[in-house]
């Protein structure tokens, strides 16, 4: 199968890197590694695994160190404290070397035996393949119901067709990984961020298993965190390169509201009913002032975008291929990705 990632022009067989963030998963890590190694050894391509310990307080660091000492295909990254899943994923992605990147949760609920199915879809030409936990093995009230509501709302506001944004198992080509901006808790919106890059995506149904050991890190609090981040993801995908349009629309709405208050305010004032007219006129003036401020903010944001683009490293596009009668290139990367981590197999944390 041809897994050649967009931008990789190498004669060597395509490789696979599996990245797994972990926090207090001592009861699952050994079984996970055994299952994962068995699946990867059956692949006809080079592979490696990157575990990231995100500030665990149990025996996860010790067990990861033992695994790395025994298995030369494993690298372990120890973060100094708990930075969150998005930061842990980014650390592993920066360290990885594979043409195809597989993300996996460390709680054993994702089944490593699904990995060949993801690679088969990548071989068909897709840039990112998402998992769909159609038969999810979690509590209905605390996990599945909030997830369904959040997924429905996100699909309505962003237009993203992915039915299960929270699924932790997925496959991505190298070029997608290098241009993802995973900050804060944006890992939850990874399919939407990839779609915004122009990545060709699809979804496959995956096997979802009950948690065998440890405690889930998610609950109703995550539902509200997703909703809190939703306005940001809408802004990034719709108005990132044209903020003036959003701010101009808000400015017009506030300005119209001020006008609607000014008209009756003038009428009441002319009729001599000052207690009614003066407050409305004052509110109208405040609304007009806010309208001007919003417009000014939009202009400043637009200027900032143009200054960023003029530097040549923040262009609002990515080139998939360049073909002419003189040469052919798989991809022209723009901007260039940051240098990858050059870490050893094991490390220590603060």
Give a description of the structure.
This is Glycosyl transferase, family 2. The chain crosses the membrane at residues 248-271, 277-301. Keywords: Cell membrane, Glycosyltransferase, Lipopolysaccharide biosynthesis, Membrane, Transferase, Transmembrane, Transmembrane helix. Residues 17-178 form the Glycosyltransferase 2-like domain. One of its GO terms (molecular function) is glycosyltransferase activity. This protein is of the alpha/beta class. The chain folds into 2 domains: 16-238, Spore Coat Polysaccharide Biosynthesis Protein SpsA, Chain A; 243-315. The chain is 46% helix and 12% strand. It is built from 10 helices and 9 strands. It has helices at residues 29-41, 60-70, 85-95, 115-123, 140-158, 174-179, 190-196, 220-238, 243-270, 274-310; strands at 16-22, 47-53, 74-78, 100-103, 128-132, 170-173, 201-205, 322-323, 328-329. The chain has a 7-stranded mixed sheet, with helices on both faces. A two-stranded antiparallel ribbon has the order 8-9. Helix 9 packs antiparallel against helix 10. The chain is elongated and about 90 Å long. It starts with 15 loop residues before the first strand and ends in a 21-residue tail after the last strand. Residues 1-11 and 328-350 have low confidence and may be disordered.
């Amino acid at each position: 199968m041809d897994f050649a990632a967009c931008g990789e022009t190498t004669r060597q067989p395509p490789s696979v890197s599996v990245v797994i963030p972990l926090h207090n998963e001592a009861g699952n890590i050994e079984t996970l590694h055994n299952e994962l190694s068995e699946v990867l050894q059956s692949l006809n391509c080079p592979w490696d695994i990157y575990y990231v310990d995100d500030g665990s307080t149990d025996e996860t660091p010790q067990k990861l160190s033992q695994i790395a000492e025994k298995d030369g295909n494993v690298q372990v990254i120890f973060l100094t404290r708990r930075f969150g899943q998005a930061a842990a994923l980014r650390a592993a992605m920066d360290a990885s070397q594979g043409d195809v990147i597989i993300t996996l949760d460390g709680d054993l609920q994702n089944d490593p035996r699904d990995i060949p199915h993801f690679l088969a879809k990548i071989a068909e030409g897709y840039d990112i393949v998402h998992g769909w936990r159609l038969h999810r093995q979690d509590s209905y009230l605390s996990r599945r119901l909030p997830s369904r509501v959040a997924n429905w709302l996100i699909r309505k506001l962003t237009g993203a067709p992915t039915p299960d944004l929270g699924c932790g198992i997925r496959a991505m080509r190298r070029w997608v990984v290098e241009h993802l901006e995973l900050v804060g808790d944006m890992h939850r919106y990874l399919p939407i961020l990839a779609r915004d890059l122009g990545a060709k995506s699809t979804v496959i149904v995956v096997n979802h298993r009950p948690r065998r050991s440890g405690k889930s890190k998610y609950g109703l609090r995550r539902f509200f965190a997703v909703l809190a981040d939703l306005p940001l993801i809408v802004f990034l995908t719709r108005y990132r390169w044209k903020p003036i349009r959003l701010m101009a629309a808000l400015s017009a709405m506030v300005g119209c509201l001020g006008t609607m208050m000014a008209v009756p305010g003038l009428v009441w004032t002319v009729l001599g009913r000052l207690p009614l007219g003066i407050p409305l006129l004052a509110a109208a003036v405040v609304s007009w002032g806010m309208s001007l401020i919003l417009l000014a903010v939009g202009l400043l944001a637009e200027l900032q975008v143009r200054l960023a683009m003029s530097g040549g490293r923040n262009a609002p596009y990515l080139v998939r291929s360049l073909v002419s009668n003189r040469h052919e290139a798989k991809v022209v990367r723009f901007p260039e990705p940051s240098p990858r981590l050059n870490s050893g197999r094991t490390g220590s944390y603060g």
